[in-house]
Amino acid sequence: MKLDIERHLRRAFMRRLVSTARGRQHVLSLMVAAEEGDEQGVFDALANRADDAELQKLVRVHQEDERVHARLYRDCLTRAGLEYVTVPDDLMIIRHVGRTAGGVFAEGVATGTTEALRSRADVMNTYALLLAIEQRGVQQFPLIGAEFRRLGDHQTADVFDRVTKDEARHVRYCKAIGRRYAESDAAWEAAVATYARIEDRAFKEVGVSTIAHALETGLLGKSRIARRVGRALRAVTASG
Question: Are 25 and 82 in contact (CB under 8 A)?
Fold first, then answer.
């Protein structure tokens, strides 16, 4: 019942958000920022640590897919006559997941490097975390695409559908490579469970920040009360 309520609220929020041009601009800019969220060159580091050519190829294909996705979402903005808008740091889900995960991931976010990826266990954990992120995309992107399709923007909806298919393939990459670098199946399963919990926590926290931002900046309407609620909600998330 709780999951059904949360799903309904997320869908209602997204429907309201994409009902305006500013809201659609915000959503598509979020997608661009998420796909370009490899600022730390994590795929370069993973490719360098891959222990055979086939694994290196999988890493590079994954990396190129993310670049293509970013271009596709930018094309959606252009087609709608919109421009990319800078996404606030607290809405950058990949960075927040890294900070929440701590350890080498938080170090990478803080330093802007991948020097923290030193061991096979680091590679395994990276793919466990990527797995959780990709699975989230497979769950959420069709819901967002459906809202654009409801508004008649079938080309943008098709982009979300295409990206979803790619993310499903990335899920298979993450599982295959993660197991390859794990000391055992048990170690891999433990990592998957750990980073799924971490990703879920970060996803919910960024979700609250996203709602606060939308209220505070008038993306959900110009009500003064909504703006005040947004500012109060942002203050709470900042203090937490």
Answer: yes
Q: Is 0.90 topped by the overall pTM?
A: no
Give the tens place of pLDDT for each residue, 35-64: 887 544 566 667 666 677 777 888 888 889
pLDDT digits (tens, 9 = 90+) for 98-136: 888 887 777 766 666 556 667 889 889 989 999 999 999
Report which of 230, 226, 214, 196 is spatially closest to residue 17, judged by C-alpha positions: 214
How many residues comprise the chain? 240
Are 53 and 11 in contact by the 8 Å Cβ rule? The answer is: no
Task: Name the 3-class secondary structure at 58.
Answer: helix
The residue among 176, 148, 127, 203 whose CA lies nearest residue 27 is 148
Q: How far is CA 125 from the centre of its chain?
A: 17
Closest to 27 in 3D by CA, of 73, 96, 66, 89: 73
Backbone angles phi, psi at 223, to 5 degrees: -65, 130
Tell me which residue of 178, 203, 169, 176 sits closest to 61, measured CA to CA. 169
Question: What is the DSSP code string of 74-128?
Answer: HHHHHHTT----PPPGGG-HHHHHHHHH-HHHHHHHHHTS-TT--SHHHHHHHHH
